[in-house]
Design a protein that fits this description.
The complex is a heterodimer of chains A (about 290) and B (about 400). Chain A has about 290 residues and is mainly alpha-helical. Chain A has 12 helices and 2 strands. In chain B, strands 1, 2, 3, 6, 7, 8, 9, 10 and 11 form a 9-stranded mixed beta sheet that branches. A two-stranded antiparallel sheet of chain B has the order 4-5. Chain B is α/β, with parallel strands linked by helices and about 400 residues long. Classes of the chains: A mainly alpha (about 290), B alpha/beta (about 400). The interface of A and B includes residues 128, 154 and 243 of A.
Amino acid sequence: MNHSLNQDRWKDYLYILPMILVFCVFILYPVVQVIYQSFFIKSASGEMSWAGLGNYTKFFHSKEAKIVFKNTAIWCLIGTASKIVLGLIMAYILNKKFRGKKLLTVIILIPYAMPAAVSCTVWRLMYNPNFGHINQMLLDLHFINRAVSFLGKPATSLTAVMIVNIWAVAPFCALNILSSMYAIPAYIYEAAELDGANAWQQYMRITLPMIFKDVRTLALLIGIWAFNSFDVIYMMTTGGPANSSAILVNQVYSNAFEFNNRPYSAAISVVCFFILMIFAVLYVQSKGREESYE
Amino acid sequence: MKKALSLILALVMVLSLCTCFASAETKEITYVTLGDTGMALLEEAAAEFEAETGVKVNLESWSYSDAYQKILTLAEAGNMPDAMYGFSSWTEQFMKAGWSVPFDGLISDELYNDFSQAARDVCSVDGKMWAMPSYMSVRSELINKASFDAAGVEVPDTWEGLLEVAPKLCNDVTPYAYTMVAGHAKNTIDCFLPILWAYGSDVLSADRQTVAFNTPEGVAALQMYVDLAEYAEPGYGENTINETQSAFTTQTAAVYIHNGQGLAALEAAGESHEWAEIIDPLKGPGGEAYSYGVMDVDLMFATGNEEITAKFLELWHQAKYQGEVIKAAGWVPNQASYVEAIPAFSDPDNALVAPFVAMEGIAKFKPSITCWEEIQKIMADHVTNAVFGVETAEEAWAAAETECNAVLAAQ
């Protein structure tokens, strides 16, 4: 009996062996390699020498670290909160019964379905100080008296890129929240109505509490995506001007590929890795506490 | 059975040896160019080379934007092409990394002496020519004469003079006086260096161990850039050099720094550029003025095919091939034989090339140092901060000096 159990266990391991191999070769080895590299410095001739925590100390004491940590915090926290709030509003509207609901759903989904390269190009044109719609509108309304380069000004560049990212991701949040709303049994609302609860009270006392856990999980997922969202920033501003719209992942890229300083870039990657670990743990925990209303 | 097996094994060994001998002779080399400029003529040169030597030249075209990253990745993996078109700022880095090989002894004396001294200097490190001068462009100020006429002002010959007339150049012909870059690292420095040099300052000290721009002259140059921004087309924070060119050719801005490429594009599109004029580089307070030289180079890598690759490059660097590309693009010839063979280069009526050829003697180039990309980024970030009022010119240069010197010291 025991012998057969052991044999089955080995068989189980054998089944997952390919996956373990793939994990080791494509995930574990690169991660270990990046951590290892981060303890070296590279000379002009390409020779690597041991630097201990030198790259980490250099990064945490640098001016760019202050800027990118601040930007990353704004990008992730304000960005995620905005996406969720907009998602809640859109989901609330789409949860109502009205004519043209399907058409509106499609329209709302367009930004999410659009490839990032396309939406970034469109927004870049709209922001353009010479012929962009946004500047023209603001000039016509006399809100500004000279065209503004929203993407080219350190004071506005991060906000301008964040708007694009929020615009693109909020529909995804709306759809997710909507599916959570659909899962709430109708009898709860019927009972509330019998008790005299108005729409606002129903939303605040029933809908929000019942979708809260899903929204929390969604927020963590969106936060992780935001932390890693290199594409939009790179395509809109490449992190500039003067790092004003750069987040941590942009620094990983620029140090690795623009300045060819792979060990320093590896150190920033490790910092990103540990921050993301926190998000990941929270995400897994939040997923583990799912409940059913049935 | 044993005999048959031995026979098969012996055959396999003989066949593998034959393959080894066959591969000892180079049959193919790879040359990488950037963009599609001159591709048709490159193909012709490759075909002629193959007919002459039997060696096939594989031509690859990479985009300018990711070429640096691509070659670094390939070089670190030991998988470089045999030669590539690149930038002079890469020369020292690739040399120190042991990736590139010098051209000395591999190209003929005739070709070596055909390059101008300035071109050879830019490509040389420690007395050896680690890159071959390729396309060269000389940049100076281009002005919209119609805008100056409308403003009723004379064309200035100093930066102070330009700043003085700038408010009047924001007029019906051109809404803005100037167009510049203050954000994009490389192009910010491309636009700013001519001003820094005109003010008598420079990027590096004579021994190249520290930076030299944090001087009263350097601060004044930066302040000039900041002041000009007030009258500049407002996209400078997100512009690249291409957008400045568009701003000038669409008559949005009255003055900008570049070569004749924008005007050549107008000509090719059948549009008039009579309103435009190429002027001598503007002077600084001390009367110094430099045109901005951009030297692109051909680099050869240590792949074991150096000799045959150098022969291909020697064929490519002929007036009928590369000379024609330079003529078509409106760049400046850096080989004497091109000027002799192609009359357009010495024709004083060739309005798009002649003025730049005349400025070749006062051309100054960006330094070629290993950490140039980082130095450039630091400088550009602080120029940007100064332009947007995040830092004063003094603060910007003081901070940039500290950061750049730390980078230089770490090399």
